[in-house]
Amino acid sequence: MEDFLEKLQKTREGFFSRTRLVFFLDLIAIFSILYAIFIIANLEYLLTKLSILSSLPPSIPIIPPAVAIITALIISTLLHKKDKKTNVIRLIENKYPELNERLSTAYDNRDESNIIVDSLKTFVSESMTPVSPSMLMSKGLIISKIMITVIFLAGMAFISLNPQGIQIPQNTLDNMTKAITGQDQNTTGLIDITGRPENMDNMAAKGSGDIFGKPKIASIEGKNIDLTLYTGDNTGTTVSDYNPTSNQFIKSPAFPVDILGSNVSDSDYSMLMKKTETEKQLINQYAIKRSQI
Q1: Percentage of the chain surpassing pLDDT 70?
Q2: Considering its fold, how many domains does the chain have in total?
């Protein structure tokens, strides 16, 4: 094997080992973020509410970390799916201008042997002496990845060990679940007859529309009344004929208005008629005054 091919192989292996390190760092960081979110969201309690998993309570605690690691693995794979297709030769040529096109030409003619090709291979081999995998992937990138991963991992460990005050309370999750699923807060079994009127504009005018509010039983207070109907002693009389000349009212004698107002009897009328006109006027005025009291 040519000398430049050995150096190229070592450079390629070092580069892909660094890409694998970055892959695992991303995997751990994403897992830490997801698992911390699951702890804050109290996913374990939500899983206990599912009827499908209620029969397997011992396995519920391992579900959140399992879901987090699987999701992190999928995301990391998608982020690094092109790593294996990276052209290391092109990276070296871009990083070292003196090897531009010479390295790729020497690699394409690695099986050829003549004066020109051998001279090119010797030049490439000498020029690849300073080539290092660390120059293709900077150490600063790897160090920053390590620091971010350590921060996320420490945060996840802190949340998992001290979930109090960070985790969403169970009653809040119950209310959110009922709001999302549409379950009624009233669990007493009463039927809700509330609803929106069919036509609110015509409800007051025509009396149409549904009933608002929850049903209540109105208490009626008062005195009991006997509404029993009793049968009569004799049969009733039905008017069969009407004669306007019969059953005429008897007209009573006409009394003077002053005498009627005095509220006197018939026996006193003859005595009053014997009075003088002055006395009659006095009696009349007295009767009027008494009627006004």
Answers
A1: 65
A2: 2
